[in-house]
Amino acid sequence: MSEDYNSSDFKKLLDKLQTESWQLELLISGFAIFGLFQAKDPLEVELIKAIGNNEEIYGYLIRTVYPALTILLIVLLIHVILRGVWIGALGLRYVSGDIDYEHLNYSKKFTDRLTQKVGSFDRYISRLENICSTLFAIAFLMAFYFMAYMLVVGFFATTTSLVEITGIFSKDQQIQFTAAWGLIYFSMALLVFVDFIGMGVLKKGNLRPKIYMPIYRFFGIITLSFLYRPLVYNFLDQKRAKWLATFILPAYILGSVLVSSFKKQQSNYLGENPESSTIYASTSNYEDVIDENDELVDFAVIPSKVITTPYLPLKVPYTSFKEDAVFKQDSTLNPEKDRRGYRFNARKIDLFGAQFQFNNGPNDFEEQKKYLKVFNNMYKIMIDSTVIEKEFIYTTNENERLQFETFLDISHLENGKHLLYVVGPRGQTAFFEQKIINDTIVTIPFWYFKN
């Protein structure tokens, strides 16, 4: 029956379902809101792991999914509230019927105005019904919009990564290919966005549709638009709803910027700083106070602000910048082909729960020792004004994130406040050119008290 959508029986079924859809709306909204609230914290944790492990593609996916879930959550909450008002209005209508303006005994001027502006109670219920149904549909349409954006950028990242993995171009040719392909691809994407904001402006006329049609079909395949295209055009053929469907996404982006920039300032002089210094201790430098939802851990971390042991553990999370700095120090370590990122690894295979580990190669251990030697020579550790001996090794933390670790001898320190300095290469932008200079990268205050 569902395939014969022109039959009278199918239309009667749709009319019946349309009348009773509010029950399904509330049921789906309730489950969706519960699931979205449960998903927000795990997504934030996964985003932290992705940033720390330099998993750009995975981090990009989470960054795109997170605002989509936020939009869906906000719209569904508004939908549930208005549906509650609608159900309350229905109950009130059963008890008291329509609004009797004559019984209110207002002056003729107010009675005429209320009759014109407020109207009948049934009209109010009908408007609530339309708003609720529209919000429910547009909530999922917004999620599809974000999915389309994610797929557009993800397709570009996938194509460039595949070309890099195949190795058909040299490093310089790969950069040129990425630049050329990005210019062409995102120019076409800009046309699609202009058509979206203009509510189909490129589909009108005679010449423009002929030029635009191949681009429209290409991005239609990439964004899986067959899933939500009927929803879009159903909104666009309505005078009021089409503006809502088109501009709710820019409105959300603008609202997010305004909300994120509105903060409470506690002091005229004192405020939260991004990095620790001689007078400020950032929570991102101490393991015992790092919030699991912090977006980034600082360059180096120590266990706590108060140290009572004769040694001080120091951990430096791995980043691709640190590895690039190693390559600049010793060009012989720079591989011909960059193996970082997602790719197939035949050294470890998981088959039906059984793991098979293969030899890493005869030269890997010696190369790792050479890598660590260069890394140790790059950085100087100082406490107050004294250089401290150190030897970094590499390990992984509980989140399987690579990091460098060493233990510093502080048994000679006096009780009280001390400053830990890490000096080494850091990036600096000058005239739009990234340079690496030697400087104090991080300053961490701590207090040492002997047991």
Automatic annotation (TrEMBL):
Record keywords, A-Z: Membrane, Transmembrane, Transmembrane helix
Domain of life of the organism encoding this protein: Bacteria
Regions that span the bilayer: 57-82, 135-157, 177-202, 214-231, 243-262
Keyword field contains Membrane: yes
Protein name: Uncharacterized protein
